[in-house]
Structures are given as structure tokens and as C-alpha cells.
Design a protein that fits this description.
The protein is α+β, with helices and mostly antiparallel strands. A five-stranded antiparallel beta sheet has the order 4-3-2-1-5, with helices on one face. β1 and β2 form a beta hairpin. α4 crosses α5. The relative contact order is 0.12.
């Protein structure tokens, strides 16, 4: 009688073969895992190089990059950190403030080592390891700057000064007056031509000038069209001057709000307490 617990020779061989195949498959998966990961990284790196022009890489491009794209595009060992990074960030931000790309007050602190940028709508605090904290539009502007300044290939522009923001009283009332004067000159010519045409139409209707082919109605209509053009141009100049005045006043208000006049920061900006590691007496350079 056959033992009910015994296994036929053929079935036992099949089971051993299946076990061996499973072991081989597991080994293959373990060996192919790193290779697959490396291939995916290389594929992502190639995609990043095709997507971005690193010869003309700017803050706008950095803002579009994902964390995965950043990791494969730049080697961590080549990142600039520490005080050098903070110096580069401060100079780059001051250059962008001077060109009106960013509105913020920039402070380079040495005790503790920090870069603080703030406006009337938010702030950003940059640490030596490249991390950034804060909120508002300033944080959005500072993040790509920190990423760019941590790259050794990025040339930081030289700021015009350590204090690129003007005093509120130094902000001019208007913008480009040359353009306004040119528009007024054109409007004046249009106005004069319109008056001449309307006058000619009136005289032609009275029979004082022109002959049978003269059309007083046509002259008057043309004159009114020139007057309408002149009126539109004068309104454009008036609106431009009024807008410039409002923008200038708004800019002065924002400068006052960040304490440029009295030296006080907005209440939401964190205070930086000295930790004794700084090199200067007051622990900061403002700009």
C-alpha cells in the first residue's frame, strides 16, 4: 500500500526545480535593481539636460525644477555652503533689488550667520546650509536665488551698493517725461490740424474759399477726427502721469513700511539673537 504522505519522485523533482528557479529569479531581481535605478537616473538626467539650458540658467528655470530634477542635475559635493553661500546670496539679492526684480531689504548677519530679506509682505531667512524659511513673495524670490548661488558655475553679479533701496524722499514723482512730451507734441499737431480743417470747412460752406469741388462737410468731419485723436492722446498723457504719481507714492509707502525711514522692521520679521560666533560688533550688514 502506498504511503499517503509520500511524494512521487517526479513531483519532488518538479518542486526542487521550482524552488531553484525562484532563487534564481530573486537573485536576478536583486542584481537588476541597482542597474534599473541607475538607468532611470541617467534617463532623468538626459531629460533635464534637454529641458533646461544650463548656459543661460536663471531663477525662472530654477523655480520650474522639481526636487528630483535638481538632485540629478547637480552633484551634492559641488554645492557651495556656509558663509560663502550667504555672501553670494546677499550680493545676488542686492543686485536684483537694484534692478527692481525683487523688492526687499537685505541684511547679511554674521552673528548668527544668516541672510535676512524682508518686505512689507513677507520675509525669507537663509541658513548656511542653504535651507530657507519664511513666507510671502520674498520667500518665493529668494529660493531660486539660493539654489543658483550654491552652484559653483553661477557668476554672482556685483551689486551697485550694500543699500540698493532708495530713501522714500528720493523716489521721483513720475517716470519717463520724454515720452509724455512727445505724445503731447503729436497731440498738439493733431489739434492744430483739426482746427484748420474745421475752419476751412466753415469758410468753404460760406463760399469764401474753394470752388464747386470743395466739400465743407468732408473738411469738417476730417477736422473733428483730428480733434478726437488729439483728445485721446492728451488723455493718455494725463493717465500716464497720474499712474506714475500713484505708483511712486505706493513705492514710497512700501519703503516706509519696511522701516527704511525709522530703521524698524515689520513685526512679523523674526529677531536674530547673537550666538557669540560672529566676527563683527553689531553682527549685521544692512542693504
Amino acid at each position: 500500500m502506498a504511503d499517503p504522505q509520500s511524494t512521487p519522485p517526479g513531483d519532488e523533482a518538479d518542486q526542487q526545480g521550482a524552488t531553484a528557479d525562484s532563487g534564481i529569479d530573486a537573485d536576478d531581481e536583486q542584481s537588476s535593481g541597482p542597474a534599473t535605478d541607475e538607468a532611470s537616473v541617467e534617463a532623468l538626467r538626459a531629460e533635464v539636460e534637454e529641458k533646461y539650458d544650463f548656459d543661460d540658467f536663471g531663477p525662472e528655470d530654477m523655480a520650474k525644477m522639481t526636487a528630483e530634477e535638481w538632485e540629478v542635475a547637480f552633484e551634492e559635493e559641488s554645492w557651495i555652503t556656509g558663509g560663502e553661500l550667504l555672501d553670494r546670496v546677499a550680493d545676488d539679492l542686492r543686485s536684483r533689488v537694484a534692478t527692481r526684480e525683487v523688492f526687499a531689504r537685505v541684511e547679511r548677519h554674521t552673528d548668527p550667520q544668516r541672510v535676512l530679506a524682508y518686505s512689507d509682505e513677507g520675509y525669507a531667512l537663509v541658513f548656511p546650509d542653504g535651507t530657507v524659511e519664511g513666507h510671502g513673495t520674498v520667500l518665493r524670490d529668494v529660493k531660486p536665488t539660493v539654489a543658483l548661488c550654491s552652484m559653483d558655475d553661477y557668476d554672482v553679479p556685483e551689486p551697485p551698493s550694500d543699500d540698493p533701496l532708495p530713501e522714500p524722499e528720493e523716489v521721483p514723482e513720475g517716470g519717463n517725461e520724454l515720452g509724455n512730451w512727445m505724445l503731447q507734441l503729436i497731440a498738439g499737431v493733431q489739434l492744430l490740424a483739426g482746427l484748420v480743417l474745421i475752419g476751412g470747412g466753415i469758410l468753404a460752406a460760406a463760399g469764401q474759399i474753394g470752388g464747386e469741388g470743395a466739400s465743407p462737410v468732408l473738411l469738417i468731419v476730417a477736422g473733428l477726427a483730428f480733434l478726437a485723436i488729439a483728445l485721446v492722446l492728451f488723455l493718455v498723457v494725463a493717465n500716464a502721469r497720474l499712474s506714475d504719481k500713484f505708483r511712486s507714492e505706493e513705492y514710497r509707502d512700501r519703503l516706509r513700511a519696511i522701516g527704511l525711514s525709522d530703521g524698524e522692521r515689520p513685526e512679523f520679521v523674526p529677531a536674530l539673537e547673537p550666538d557669540g560666533s560672529g566676527e563683527s560688533e553689531d553682527g549685521q550688514h544692512e542693504g
